[in-house]
Each structure stands twice: as C-alpha cells, then as structure tokens.
Design brief:
Length: 609
C-alpha cells in the first residue's frame, strides 16, 4: 500500500500517489546527513549492535508450525566484521537444542547445522518428530556462545480432537513510523498459538524528510518527531541485496520484535513493501528501471553518482532472497509443493477438525494496477477476466481448498482488502482502491463463488490498509445495500497497522478520519466496523461455535505529552478496544461483544517430570 492514503474518500485513483523518485535522488546526501551514515557506515551501526549483544544479536524465532514440526531461526555473527550484508566472516557450525523446559534439563532433540556468508549467516532448521499441540523451548550454540531461549509450540492439529485455536494477526510494521509497541503487547501474552504477519514486515524507504512546501520531496515515511531516533539503515531506499539484508537486520534488532519472535511461532507472508511499493508482476509504482540521467545525485551509491534501480525482476529476486534468509518461513516448494508459477509462497495449515488456514501471496503474479475510472466512467478493465491477482494455479488451489474443506472454518491469510469497497463519490460502482481485490474483480468473484459453495464458514484475515475493519462478504452488494438481510458468504477481519500511517495521520486529525470512515460505512453497509485511528493488532479466537476478533490498540503509557500519537512513546502500552464475532452458519459479523476470556484448553507440556 502506498504511504499516502487518499486525502478524501472521493479519490478514485487505482493506487495512491507515491513518493517522488526525483526526491529520492536529490535527497541522497540529505538522507545520509540526517542519519549520519553512508551504507557502509550503516552496516557498521548494525555491527555496533552485534558487538554489544554478541554472536546472537538478532535474536531467535520459530515459524510455520505443524502438528509434528516447527522451523527454528537465528542469525550468527561469527566475528565482529561479519555484519549483515557484508559478505564477510567464516562459516560456523551451529548446534540447536529443543527442550521440554526453559532450563534445558529435559532436552528432547539436539542437532547440528552450519551457516556462512553465502546466506548472510542466517540459520534455519526444521525440527521433526515433535508431539502435537505441545509447548517447547529452543536455543542455539556456536562454540561457547549461547543464544537467547525461545518458546514455541506445535499446532493443535490432531484428527478427531478439537482444541482451542487463538492467534494474533498484524501487518504494516514501519520502523520509522514508531516503536513496535504492538509486538511488545503480543510478546506479553501467553495464550497464542501463533502470530500471523500479513505483510509489509519491512519498508523500503530511506530517511529524507519531505521539504516544507515541496510536494513529492523526501522519501521518509513516518512522523518527523522520530528523525534521528528511529532511522532506517541503510539510509536510502533498499535496492541491492546488501540493502535488503541490512534493512531486515535492523528490524530484527528491535527489542520488541525480538521479544515477540522469541515468545511465539510466526506464520508470515510478504506484501509489497518487502520488495517496493505497489509491486506487480513486472514492476512497481516505486521502481524505475533507469533513473533520469539528467537528475543529479550526490548521495551514496555508484561511483558515477547514480544509484540505479535496474531490472525489476532482479530487484525482486534480491528481495526474495533476503526475505527467505531473514524470516522464519519455510520454502513451500520443498514442503507443500503445489502447481504454481515462479516461487511458491502460498501454503496451508491444519488445526484438527476445527479449521484450515490458507495463506495466499498476491504480489508476484498480479497484473498491473489500473485506474478506477476512465473518462469519468467505471474502468471496464477492473472486471477483465484476463487480469489476475494470484496466478491461475494459486487461485485454483485457494478456491478448491475453500470448497472442499470439511472443517468448521476456513481461514484465509490475505494481504489487501477482499470485500468490495465503493468510493463515496463518482459514478455508481466506482471502487475506492484498485490495488485491492476490487481491482481484480473476476478473481474476487471466483473466490466469492467458492465461498458460496463451501460447507466450512470462510473467514478472511487481512492487513495492508492501516485501519481496522469487520466486513460481511455479500456476493451482490447492491442487493445487500437494499436489504442488509441479503446473502453474505463469509466475513473479513482487517487488522490495524503496527505503526504505518492510518487515516488519522494521512487526513490530518482524528475528527476528519472519523468523518471519512463514517462516510465509507454509509456507502458500504456491509462494512460493519471501521476504525482509522488506532494502531495495534487483532487477536482471533476460533471455536466450533464462533470466530471472535478482539481489537487491541496502542496507547501512551504515561504522562509523556504524546497521547495524540502513541507511536512516538517508547513506554506506550496496548489496550483492548472492541470485539466482533461471526457465529457458525451465519457468515455475518455481529457485535460488538465482550472481550475474550481464557482459552478453552492449553497446550501440553513436553516435560515428563
């Protein structure tokens, strides 16, 4: 999603205006000056973190849990010069251990692997032979150095058994946008089976603030109060493999991020900013194959003063490489191979007889975004069946998975808003944002048709839009608008951003944001809840009878004078806001309801004591 939310609900552009590429080029020197760092110095700054924290400066993580397996991750710094992105440092043997207790008195598995500069000294291990729905602890050792201890659990996936299922889902965690208080709130919870990150885990932008009165200048994204406090490294837009690696390292060095990763297993999928803004199959809004040769550039980069972005597919490959190195994610083509194009990232998780979770990927193969209107009329290309969001093979995997599921619920982890969102102005049928599923209406209709045929109740979990939503999913929005009792084939919950600007920041204040969101709900009555102010996360609890989503927002933790923007407060806290449910068989949102209570059951301990 573009960092610049439309300034009014009447905006009908297919994608919001992006930052100026000329501003990025002209601002290179300023960005380096603000951060005080060149890319080489940025690597050294991350290296300072390494020297303070030792061999395991970037923490530990686990991910992609199944009933009997879980992936473990860390990053090793074998010598001080082996900073992320440097390509330096010797290979190292790494010992991993999984135990039933955090003191490692009952080690249940131990093994050895190795890492090298070829994969930026990151480590991934898939541990098999574990017990379902069981809590474990893990750590790594390199020679005499021992990592922090992580906690993980296997999936509640036992045929014929119904266990509790509770997860947190998040998206849009921009480092320069604020402190990761939402992650700290997630880390403090003991009741989660996993954390689902739906994309925009890292952002590509540099550090140059916009110049007053100069539209399109600057490439920094986030509150100016954090300039010099939370700056991106490298200080310019990430383009090279080195850039992507250093940026991931910066995000993994954040203490709140480390705490959340160490506390729970994660399931992750990228959106656009892990590559660059509004990416599609062959390009992106925030990518130029060749920079304007007439534009001066004096910042860090190539010897001739030009920092070219080059071939988009090559850039995307570098982004994918760093993502796979630095994130606790398996490579699905080696784990759950399905017919696909390019790299397979979509995958499915099972939770006993209660639910399935299909995680989709919607950037690698999507057709380029098109405007919502052409000559003042709705653009017919929006409904063109030749245009696609996922590739055809993935769409078939998703629709057949929804249709054939024999569980109570089918959850879909998804990047951009799935429900139809009509603009509050313009001709009848004009949509708000064509980067969403509304820009690919044939695919949207195919998924809705599969939902209508399904016996499992579909629940879509979405990020991207930096706001909180609870939506019914009608197949005929006109019929629903005329009669709210018309058919809805599923529901959608959308989580707020961790830090990225929402309606309030983009529109200049809470009152304006509330007016705009109220207008959206009047125009789109199937949007049962919409908040454009809060930042935080959503906790989803699944039982055979209902799915409930609890919204949690961050709030200033004390008398700091920052209550208007708690993202700026390092002592901010998370607070419960509201809850909505979907009762089994209704395929509708109802509520608000009371906050969740304790889980219906707890995972087993692996301890034999």
């Amino acid at each position: 999603m573009s960092p610049q939310t439309p300034t009014s609900p009447a905006t009908d552009a297919g994608t919001a205006a992006g930052v100026s590429r000329r501003g990025v080029l002209l601002g290179g020197a300023a960005a380096a000056g603000i951060a005080g760092l060149t890319p080489a110095e940025a690597r050294a700054a991350v290296g300072d973190l390494v020297s303070r924290a030792g061999v395991f400066a970037f923490g530990v993580a686990s991910g992609d849990p199944t009933a009997t397996e879980v992936l473990l991750w860390t990053r090793v710094t074998p010598v001080p010069s082996a900073v992320p992105g440097s390509g330096r440092g010797p290979a190292r043997d790494v010992v991993w251990e999984v135990a039933a207790d955090d003191g490692f008195r009952e080690v249940v598995q131990r093994g050895r692997t190795w890492t090298s500069a070829e994969r930026d000294h990151t480590v991934k291990v898939v541990v098999s032979g574990l017990q379902p729905y069981t809590e474990y602890f893990y750590r790594f050792r390199v020679r005499r150095d021992v990592s922090p201890v992580g906690r993980t659990r296997t999936s509640p996936d036992e045929p014929g058994r119904t266990h509790a299922l509770r997860l947190a889902f998040v998206s849009c965690s921009n480092y320069t946008g604020g402190y990761f208080t939402a992650y700290r709130g997630i880390a403090a919870r003991d009741d989660l089976d996993l954390v689902l990150h739906l994309g925009d885990y890292v952002y590509e932008y540099g550090n140059e603030p916009a110049l007053p009165g100069v539209p399109g200048s600057g490439d920094r994204y986030g509150p100016l109060e954090l300039v010099g406090v939370r700056d991106h490294q490298p200080p310019v837009e990430m383009v090279s493999l080195e850039d992507y690696r250093v940026r991931h390292a910066l995000y993994k060095a954040d203490p709140d991020s480390q705490a959340a990763h160490a506390r729970h297993p994660w399931v992750v999928i990228f959106d656009d900013h892990e590559i660059t803004n509004d990416a599609y199959a062959t390009g992106a809004e925030n990518h130029e194959e060749q920079d304007d040769p007439g534009t001066p550039y004096t910042g860090p980069g190539q010897p001739d003063g030009v920092r070219p972005e080059g071939d988009f597919l090559a850039r995307r490959a570098r982004a994918f490489q760093a993502y796979l190195e630095w994130m606790p994610v398996r490579e699905p083509e080696h784990w759950q191979p399905e017919p696909h194009q390019g790299r397979q990232f979509f995958r499915r998780f099972a939770f006993g007889d209660l639910a399935d979770l299909s995680v989709v990927e919607t950037r690698q193969h999507r057709s380029q975004q098109v405007p919502a209107l052409v000559d003042g009329a709705v653009n017919p290309a929006l409904a063109d069946p030749e245009r696609q969001l996922p590739e055809r093979e993935q769409l078939a995997w998703l629709t057949e998975g929804v249709r054939r599921s024999d569980k109570a619920w089918h959850l879909v982890g998804n990047q951009t808003v799935f429900a139809r969102v009509l603009s509050t102005s313009g001709p009848e049928g004009a949509v708000f944002n064509t980067d969403q599923w509304d820009g690919y209406q044939a695919d949207q209709a195919a998924v809705l048709a599969a939902m209508a045929d399904a016996t499992a109740d579909p629940v879509v979990l979405t990020g991207d839009i930096h706001s909180s939503w609870a939506n019914d999913l009608p197949t005929d929005v006109a019929a629903y608008a005329a009669d709210p009792g018309a058919t809805s084939v599923g529901v959608e919950y959308v989580c707020p951003s961790v830090t990225s600007n929402g309606f309030k920041e983009s529109l200049g204040g809470a009152a304006t944001a509330q007016a705009v969101t109220a207008a959206f709900q009047r125009r789109n009555p199937w949007v049962r809840y919409l908040d454009g102010i809060g930042h935080g996360f959503v906790v989803l609890d699944v039982t055979p009878e209902r799915v409930q989503a609890d919204v949690h927002f961050i709030a200033s933790g004390g008398d700091t004078g920052l209550a208007v923007d708690p993202r700026l407060d390092p002592d901010a806290v998370t607070r419960y806001e509201t809850s909505f449910v979907s009762v089994r068989g209704s395929r509708r949102i109802s509520g608000p309801v009371d906050e969740l209570g304790p889980r219906s059951d707890e995972p087993r301990s692996a301890s034999r004591r």
